[in-house]
Amino acid sequence: MTMSLSINMLSVVLFFPAFMLSYLRPQSTYGLKWLFLFIAFLGAALTPLSVLLSHWGGGVAFSLRITVLVILILFGIICSRYPFFHRLSILLFPYLILVNIGAVSLDALDNTSYVFYSSSNWIFAHIISGILTYASITLAAIVSFSVYLSQKNLKNKQRNQITALLPAINECNDIQTKLLIFAEAILVCGFISGLSLQYFSTGAIFIFDHKTVFTILAMVVIAIILFLQERTGVRGKTAVRFIMLAYLLLTLAYPGVKFVAQIVI
Fold first, then answer.
1. In which residue ranges of the chain is pLDDT below 70?
2. C-alpha span between 247 and 252 (Å, rounded)
3. Contact 137, 247 (CB under 8 A)
4. CA nearest 175: which of 259, 64, 92, 55?
5. Separation between Cα atoms, residue 96 and residue 18, nearest integer Å
6. Which of 50, 64, 117, 150 is most buried, taking the most CB atoms under 10 A from its CB?
7. Residues in Cβ contact with 155 at an 8 Å cutoff, skipping those fewer than 6 apart
8. How many of the other CB atoms lie within 10 Å of CB of 134?
9. First and final CA of the chain: distance in angstroms?
10. Which residues contact 221 (CB under 8 A, 6 or more apart)?
11. What are phi and psi of 204, to 5 degrees?
12. 161-210: per-residue pLDDT in tens?
């Protein structure tokens, strides 16, 4: 069922206060930042929850919205532990706004043909692990991009308004590594659970489809960047390239496969 356009637009508009606060009032109190983050959370939860009341959506738009919601939840959890993480709102919220706009444009395609049903609770655990992995690597990509911008301006002895608002490089490096480790652990667990589900549903333990190939490649790329960071301390542009590659692979494996199956084919 197509979402109401007014609800869709409201869900997008509710992201703007948090973004504008991060840009115009970066020194605001944490109470105000949490308030605007909660408003953004309401915007992210508005349409997915209305769908979940009746079914688990299987379309591209629903997948994008549930991903945005999980990214915000994970972002809030990290902010509660590391308050400096709020400063990444200036990079995160433009991305989330664009994803939400994309979901609105694709919403008309999420009809009842793409309602997902399953009698197994394990499949939902597998889906959630995939969404959580994608949310983790997205935040890792945002952090990595922040480090790259800061290092670039430091190298060129320049400082603009955006980089002045970003967290310190050493703070970002630490949380970036933790996000990558978390993403890799969840990805491996999700991959193993996917193999188990594949075996019990088809009798074949391993099928080389597009999603499987992209997932394996993403695991390898994340493992490589973690190894390089541990052994050589690689950061900056090289780290950005690896993390963006992992992000691209997981984008192709998760929403990309859905997009091709629902729209292209």
1. 1-4, 51-58, 108-122, 159, 201, 203, 257-265
2. 9
3. yes
4. 92
5. 11
6. 64
7. none
8. 24
9. 21
10. 242, 245, 246, 249
11. -105, 130
12. 788 888 888 888 889 999 999 999 999 988 887 777 777 767 677 777 77
* Contact present, 96 and 68 (Cβ < 8 Å): yes
How many angstroms separate the CA atoms of 65 and 54, rounded?
Answer: 16
- In angstroms, the CA 60 to CA 209 distance is 19
Could you list the beta-strand ranges (E) of the chain: 56-57, 115-116
Q: What are phi and psi of 207, to 5 degrees?
A: -130, 125
Q: Are 96 and 71 in contact (CB under 8 A)?
A: yes
CB 139 within 8 A of CB 247: no
Residue the block writes with tokens 């994803």: 99
For the record, the structure tokens of 175 come out as 């949380």
Determine the Cα–Cα distance for residues 197 and 152; give it in Å rounded to an integer.
45
pTM of the model: 0.87
With beta carbons less than 8 A apart as the criterion, state whether 189 and 231 touch. Answer: no
Q: Number of C-alpha atoms within 13 angstroms, CB side, residue 43?
A: 29
Question: What are the distances in angstroms from CA 148 to CA 57, 69, 94, 196, 236?
Answer: 36, 26, 18, 39, 5
